[in-house]
Amino acid sequence: MAxxxxxxxxxxxxxxxxxxxxxNPHRFHLVEVSVPALEQVLAALATADLDFLLLPGDxxxxxxxxxxxxxxxxxxxxxxxxxxxxxxxxxxxxxxEKRAIGLxxxxxxxxxxxxxxxxxxxxxEILPGVRLIGxxxxxxxxxxxxxxxxxxDEAQLRWLxxxxxxxxxxxxxxxxxxxxxxxxxxxxxxxxxQRYMLQNAADLLGILEPAGxxxxxxxxxxxxxxxxxxxxxxxxxxSLVSYPxxxxxxxxxxxxxxxxxxxxxxxxxxxxxxxxxxxxxxxNWMGDRSFSFMHRLLTLPPLALADAEARAxxxxxxxxxxxxxxGDAWFDFHHLPPxxxxxxxxxxxxxxxxxxxxxxxxxxxxx
Length: 367
Hints:
By secondary structure, this protein is an alpha/beta fold.
């Protein structure tokens, strides 16, 4: 059984070949850097002595055949195993069209990267005594239209329970695109946060907990965050095409008592060709597009500010989301009305006792 291994996580790379890029003046993510940023990270990882690489979804800009095909070809050149799951941008509708793939195409295209058949989920022994379960949280209505939140269907949940009955004492890692635990205050109940979550997360946790599964990897939210709930730990990794353009390298070590320690280290892409100061440019890009986002956050419950008050406050929060995205945030808006200040402070990196606890980028976890 492996007692020590090293792996990396690259999330939400949103690969967009230059001629496929579609413009949206309101998008926060900078897909223009998707290919050079990925190439730079893969070059850095070439010397990291990895056992494997995880990509928890949103592999492409918007499910384009040629962007998927480019990524499949590129990942196939790597000297270590790679495992993927689909994101909401990878399968935009159940049925394929001329421009974009469908649900049944995903496991076929990514057959070398975890999948063993036609199902869009899988379980693999990736090292001796270490198993990875890749789940599909992208679901569709009866007309093939993608649901607005994550969902695991009954067949997948039954398969998962049956699979976990066979793993014995193996260490099990779970990868799924949508968030299972909350990474923002009240995320599962808030109109802006709940679409990033797995709607039936309680059903999933109810299967994982008795099986002793404790570690989950997700993406989708485009933030750096480590969430803990009871015995569970969920590591969500920010997008490679959004500020601060992070990726993670993790080292798992089993001690003499059989417990696992996970050392988490985060690196940022600082520059790519054409963007010599990517961090500053990207932070400002996000800030320039933040007004409507912050206005909505302020006017929705629980704050529910009047339109005029929200419009007056939103410019003060230009970099609020960028600070959340980079992880380990600390917010002090004492110059704003007390209710607003208290609400925003809750988005700081706080532990259960309300103390500042910066674990989102570099930390040592025990599971």
